[in-house]
């Protein structure tokens, strides 16, 4: 099994357990009592001449890096991201491989005037989108490598029904071609191959010209230096998704300024 297959096998089991314990009706009632979440898509849109947007990620660990940062207080880190101009915050909610949780997301969603939150997980079933919305997320990640075109379309429609956005992630031309038939509003190009966890920073630059212009384009993974940020910003990406470089920085707020400060 490659790394992605191992993760997905585990995720299927986790979803089966969740379906035994959570009540969709209760989640729907909870949602009715909350305000609609802030608009993720609008937060990422970059008008001509404006600086590139930054999606700052809360990430403790990953299969490729192991434990990266303890992040004992995710609310404090989210607050720092908010103070330093994050357009949105990505919260890894997978526990087994990334040491995250839906609790992290819920706690951050309680911050006043927080930026839109993305549930970053391996989403295979609508219950995960319902849980994300109930926890306060504005958006979910949908990974083309994990989903058939039919299930991608179904999950995108369900997110829209709940007033949420979907960040649809691709890693190569074939995935992009499939995904474009579903007409997503936001496409993320992951420089990291989830089957091997290797990063090739040219992936996003190579695929960018193949994306029709009204779609919002996000470059993901392996962005560490101002030069990296500059390269993707100049190429025309609306937003950059950055995890490791921020969570391992001695001063994540300074690191954010360093990354977005260099782009005009
Ligand atoms: O830590 P990095 O290299 O800055 O990467 C962030 C983000 O792109 C990465 O966490 C990610 C992108 N797509 C994913 C899918 C699943 C898990 C994680 C990811």
TrEMBL record:
Q: Which residues form a coiled coil?
A: none
Q: Name one GO molecular function term.
A: phosphoribosylanthranilate isomerase activity
Give the domain of life. Bacteria
* E.C. number: 4.1.1.48
| Single Gene Ontology BP annotation | L-tryptophan biosynthetic process
**InterPro entries xrefs:** Aldolase_TIM, Indole-3-glycerol_P_synth, Indole-3-glycerol_P_synth_dom, Indole-3-GlycerolPSynthase_CS, RibuloseP-bd_barrel
Q: In which pathway does it act?
A: Amino-acid biosynthesis; L-tryptophan biosynthesis; L-tryptophan from chorismate: step 4/5
Which SUPFAM superfamilies does the record cross-reference, listed alphabetically? Ribulose-phoshate binding barrel
Q: A Pfam family name for this chain?
A: IGPS
Q: What are the record keywords, sorted?
A: Amino-acid biosynthesis, Aromatic amino acid biosynthesis, Decarboxylase, Lyase, Tryptophan biosynthesis
NCBIfam families (alphabetical): PRK00278.2-4
Protein name, please?
A: Indole-3-glycerol phosphate synthase
